[in-house]
Amino acid sequence: MIRGVLGKTFRLVGYTIQYGCIAHCAFEYVGGVVMCSGPSMEPTIKNSDIVFAENLSRHFYGIQRGDIVIAKSPSDPKSNICKRVIGMEGDKILTTSSSDFFKSHSYVPTGHVWLEGDNLQNSTDSRYYGPIPYGLIRGRIFFKIWPLSDFGFLRDSPNGHRFSDD
Amino acid sequence: MAQSQGWVKRSFKAFCKGFFVAVPVAVTFLDRVACVARVEGASMQPSLNPGGSQSSDVVLLNHWKVRNFEVQRGDIVSLVSPKNPEQKIIKRVIALEGDIVRTIGHKNRYVKVPRGHIWVEGDHHGHSFDSNSFGPVSLGLLHAHATHILWPPERWQKLESVLPPERLLIQSEEE
């Protein structure tokens, strides 16, 4: 009787570990489903939208300008931020608003990216905390699955003027 | 004929079952619990690699200890390089968020470490690409805590969390 219960417990623990490890490998190396909160990426991603993120681009260093990425927050490593890549290393970034008369530029340092939310009025991003290291990027968001009215690949940035002209 | 085909099919099934169990478990263990790595470079001499390129130390990297991003001053940690995401660097933690550091060769003489960041330095000042070059690093880049030297056998030891006392200027208040 005891041996039966013990055997069942071991089997349960074994399956839990096995499926937990498969889940870890899937989330870490392939991708997963994410729920976004906050207004900083409107209208592309609204509060409580559910999106699909893939991690292959990060591992193969294929993140490009214009991609929407999930990254660890530079000031709080336990929370994630969801923003668009405006500049890669070496790009020239406009750090003042385009309506200002005296524009100021800066260059994105090596190994870093410049992130901005699509909702420029209501987004805490690289304009506030500066460029973030590429190593903080967790994955790339490319597909929205909820709400169903907005199902599909994500659109391009509504702020085309923020991308520097080469 | 049918007998030998059954044997091949059965061993293939057994191989698949073993593969899909062993590989994820091993990968998860190496990513989340611990792994080993060879140290290259002279930036942590004399604590690591005192023999230069003749004999590189192999260290045990403990991921489990930093799963909540908790590190102490003096720990030797490995992190993703902020200047090159394909490379990992191994340095000592000198200061935590809120501390003020007296820098060597940085553009500012004194730096206050911002929230969610740490200040790392190699023990071999002057031969080290560390926070004195790239400033405080975000805790999100933390990879593992190096706890022991495993190879060569005569250098088998536990790495102590020792903080050189003159590096830190002011420590942040701790409750």
Automatic annotation (TrEMBL), chain A:
GO cellular component, one term: mitochondrial inner membrane peptidase complex
EC supergroup of this enzyme: hydrolase
Keyword line: Hydrolase, Membrane, Mitochondrion, Mitochondrion inner membrane, Protease
InterPro entries to which the protein is assigned, alphabetical: LexA/Signal_pep-like_sf (IPR036286), Mito_IMP1_subunit (IPR052064), Pept_S26A_signal_pept_1 (IPR000223), Peptidase_S26 (IPR019533)
Keyword Nucleotide-binding appears in the UniProt entry: no
Subcellular location: Mitochondrion inner membrane
Domain Peptidase S26: 17-94, 100-146
Family, per entry: Belongs to the peptidase S26 family. IMP1 subfamily.
Function, as annotated: Catalyzes the removal of transit peptides required for the targeting of proteins from the mitochondrial matrix, across the inner membrane, into the inter-membrane space. Known to process the nuclear encoded protein DIABLO.
Protein name (Swiss-Prot/TrEMBL): Mitochondrial inner membrane protease subunit
Organism: Microcebus murinus
Lineage of the species this protein comes from: Eukaryota, Metazoa, Chordata, Craniata, Vertebrata
Gene name per UniProt: IMMP1L
Automatic annotation (TrEMBL), chain B:
SUPFAM superfamilies noted in UniProt: LexA/Signal peptidase
Keyword Transmembrane helix part of the UniProt annotation: yes
Entry keyword annotation includes Cell wall biogenesis/degradation: no
GO molecular function terms attached to this record: serine-type endopeptidase activity
Protein's membrane topology: Single-pass membrane protein
InterPro entries: IMP2, LexA/Signal_pep-like_sf, Pept_S26A_signal_pept_1, Pept_S26A_signal_pept_1_CS, Peptidase_S26
PROSITE patterns documented for this protein: SPASE_I_3
Superkingdom classification of source: Eukaryota
CDD domains: S26_SPase_I (cd06530)
Active-site residues, record numbering mapped to chain: 43, 91
Keywords assigned: Hydrolase, Membrane, Mitochondrion, Mitochondrion inner membrane, Protease, Transmembrane, Transmembrane helix
A single GO BP: mitochondrial respiratory chain complex assembly
One GO cellular component term noted in the UniProt record for this chain: mitochondrial inner membrane peptidase complex
UniProt-listed Enzyme Commission number(s): 3.4.21.-
Residue span, Peptidase S26 domain: 15-103, 106-151
Places the protein is found: Mitochondrion inner membrane
Family that this chain belongs to: Belongs to the peptidase S26 family. IMP2 subfamily.
Oligomeric and partner information: Heterodimer of 2 subunits, IMMPL1 and IMMPL2.
NCBIfam families registered for this protein in UniProt: sigpep_I_bact
Function text: Catalyzes the removal of transit peptides required for the targeting of proteins from the mitochondrial matrix, across the inner membrane, into the inter-membrane space. Known to process the nuclear encoded protein DIABLO.
Stated name of the protein: Mitochondrial inner membrane protease subunit
Species the sequence originates in: Microcebus murinus
